[in-house]
Design goal:
The structure is a single chain. This protein is an alpha/beta fold and 347 residues long. The protein has two domains: 3-132 and 255-308, 3-Layer(aba) Sandwich (D-Maltodextrin-Binding Protein, domain 2); 133-253 and 316-345, 3-Layer(aba) Sandwich (D-Maltodextrin-Binding Protein, domain 2), CATH 3.40.190. It is built from 13 helices and eleven strands. It has helices spanning 3-28, 42-52, 64-72, 85-93, 169-180, 189-202, 214-218, 229-238, 267-277, 280-290, 305-308, 317-320, 331-345, and strands at residues 30-35, 55-60, 80-81, 128-140, 163-165, 206-209, 224-228, 242-245, 251-258, 293-294, 323-324. Strand 1 (30-35), helix 2 and strand 2 form a beta-alpha-beta unit. The structure holds pentane-1,5-diamine.
Length: 347
């Protein structure tokens, strides 16, 4: 081999090694977040990227069941996920969440204690509460009159073909349970069968089952939708005819959490992302954008007055009193799944 050729091969080898090292370094700085839609603004992501030199890649899911199924099926590569309360319970029981190193999350101290130590993670070993909200009814007040006060509005034939239900087993079964006067966490098989029958009865007047309700409202594809509070309030910013109500019979209250899947490729970076999100001014921007309450006490002073005092974002005590959080129910979870499959398959 000639000296020149050897020299250029060595040079190529050095370039190759440098390239691989470069990739490895880039990869070490890439954070994969798997989240509900519209939970982070581009500005917040850009600020984290500028402060850390990391790159954030965001993917979204539409229900807790999607998230749990993906992680259970062995999908790897995600560093941060955002399960709701009962999904934290399920994922932790399956060994699919990493234990958090709180030393890397000093802003954990900023969290409002009322959101800590809940039934789904008593020691917050695997989850950090992020945002919270309610489920209820979004309605186009220029078309729906009188304003709905009961879940019965979603069964009203006057609006046949113009109603969306959340494509979410626990929320839709929950709406049916509340309409029947039962708990969201009912485990009694005959009551589960009643809720199933009620949802099957409703099906002929339903236009769609979707959890991404924003564009349905914006495009006026429906006049009534089962929805999460922030999603309606965000649409109402530009389309004030859209209003949100928690029905008199009661509804769900959710806490969505930041968590790290077991075996996440970039655990320390994920913890620094969680820590970043728990800064009062950062998470106030999340509330301003998502219209969901957050779990950091001092964030409230960073919110504009219009949001600070919004009863739709921060429900008054009489509304809070009629909300329930969803719990994982063990064996009854299977009955819910079967009921929901039957609803979706019904003609
Ligand atoms: C959807 C956010 C609602 C999440 N954009 C409910 N857990």
């Amino acid at each position: 081999m000639g000296t020149n050729l050897r020299a250029s091969l060595r040079c190529a080898a050095i370039v190759f090694v440098a390239f691989v090292a470069g990739c490895a370094q880039d990869d070490a700085k890439t954070l994969h977040v798997f989240s509900w839609s519209d939970y982070f603004t581009p500005e917040i992501v850009a600020r984290f990227e500028a402060e850390t030199g990391a790159k954030v890649i965001l993917d979204t899911y539409e229900s807790n069941e999607d998230l749990v199924a993906k992680l259970q099926a062995g999908v790897t590569g995600y560093d941060v996920v955002l399960p709701s309360d009962y999904a934290v319970q399920q994922l932790a029981a399956l060994g699919l969440l990493a234990e958090l190193d709180k030393a890397n999350i000093p802003n954990f101290a900023n969290l409002d204690p009322q959101f800590l130590g809940k039934y789904f993670d008593a020691a917050n070993a695997h989850s950090v509460p992020y945002v919270w909200g309610t489920a209820g009814i979004g309605y186009d007040s220029s078309k729906v009159s009188p304003a709905p006060t009961s879940w019965a509005a979603l069964w009203d034939e006057a609006y046949a073909g113009e109603i969306n239900m959340l494509d979410d087993v626990r929320e839709s079964m929950g709406a049916a349970f509340k309409r029947l006067g039962y708990s969201i966490n009912t485990t009694d098989p005959p009551k589960i069968a009643e809720a199933r029958a009620l949802l099957i009865d409703q099906k002929p007047i339903i236009a769609s089952y979707r959890t991404e309700t924003d564009d349905l409202m914006q495009a006026k594809q429906v006049v009534l939708t089962h929805a999460w509070s922030g999603d309606v309030l965000r649409v109402a910013e530009d389309s004030p005819e859209w209003k949100y109500v928690v029905p008199d019979e009661g509804s769900t209250f959710f806490i969505d959490n930041l968590a790290i899947p077991a075996g996440a490729p970039h655990k320390a970076l994920a913890e620094s992302f969680i820590n970043f999100m728990l800064q009062p001014d950062v998470i106030a921007q999340v509330t301003a954008f998502t219209r969901y309450g957050n779990c950091v006490t001092a964030s409230r002073s960073h919110l504009p007055d219009s949001l600070k005092d919004s009863p739709a974002i921060f429900p008054p005590p009489d509304v809070l009193a009629r909300l329930e959080t969803i719990q994982s129910l063990g064996a009854a979870d299977v009955l819910y799944g079967e009921a929901w499959t039957a609803v979706k398959a019904a003609q």
